[in-house]
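Incident log, structure service

09:12 report received: a user says their structure output differs between two submissions of the same chain.
09:20 pulled the input from the user's history:
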Amino acid sequence: MNAAEFEEVALALVAQGYSPLVIAPRCPPRPDGRKVPEGKAPGVRVGGEWQLAHGWDKWCYEQVSEHLVRAWGCMIGTADDAGIGVALGRGLICIDIDQEYLLDPILAILPPSPVQKKGKKGVSLFYRGDTDKIRSRNYRTKERVGLVDLLAEGKQTVLPPSIHPDTNEPYYWWTDLTLSDVHLEDLPELPDDIAEKIAEVLKRFGYDPDRERLALVRGDMPARSACGARASSVFRQANDDALANLDCWVPKLHLYRWRRKFGGYEAVAHWRSSSTGRALELRKRNLSIVREGIEDFGDGRKYTPIDLVMRARGCNASAALDWLLERLPDEEPEIVMVNGPNTLERIRAREGM
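09:34 re-ran on a clean worker, output below:
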């Protein structure tokens, strides 16, 4: 997509209540080893070179303006390799069914969606729902085969006519209507317990809910009580390390209107509504993040670092732990616990295994 094509689709999405995003194309590896876009992530074009966009997830909580869409169009210019995506959140939810054989059983528990898209495989369906209650969730088998992705606040999805990086073919709409035709408020609504309903259906297709829980890497599995104690210990250790090393991770959360203050940081808790009814851009920086603790003085709630990552990134506790471990100093952990292969690799590297 060039600038004109992007602006046409993006402005139509804004008019229907959505937050469009610029998707960078797949880029070749860099000689310096720096991470490059792989064709499914929001990006920016600087000096003719595509880079990963940072802080794009703020548009999961705010709507993109027409002015910003036009500014992005200027950034794209005459390039024709840009893609378009949409930020999820603010009520918008996408259910991505990876396997064709799951279409009938999953569609049987979902309300009919008038807006669906297809890419390499499966189908993605769009809905609205309470994104304070319906959280993102990935359903996998023990062998890590993807079954379904429930994409909500903090996530994004690529839209037609973007080019799929694996097939070099465009995504396309599976329905006559597109997001450009249907307002966010007119999408069918999902029940608050939809994540649990999907999980129940997928159990007979190999979905393993235990993969979402922390598992021991070394030794035999201890008794339930000991396992719970050790799981608690690793979360506590990560929280303690995070409070002692705020500079390693707080700026990378891209909290709304964050800034440094004496002893730490402050920001706006964008995931909750204002107690005085103020617009987001007018709210005070009531969220205080210092070594002594994290507190939102707007509603009096206190957070651990893992709690804060969960709220800011719209993820579960194990994913928040995983995110923190990537950014904390390379010190040997007291206990080795993981929730997936990537975490295991990082912890092994930290230990010199």
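09:41 both user submissions now match this output. Likely a transient worker issue. Closing.
09:42 reviewer note: Residues 3-205 form one domain. The chain has two domains: 3-205, 215-351.
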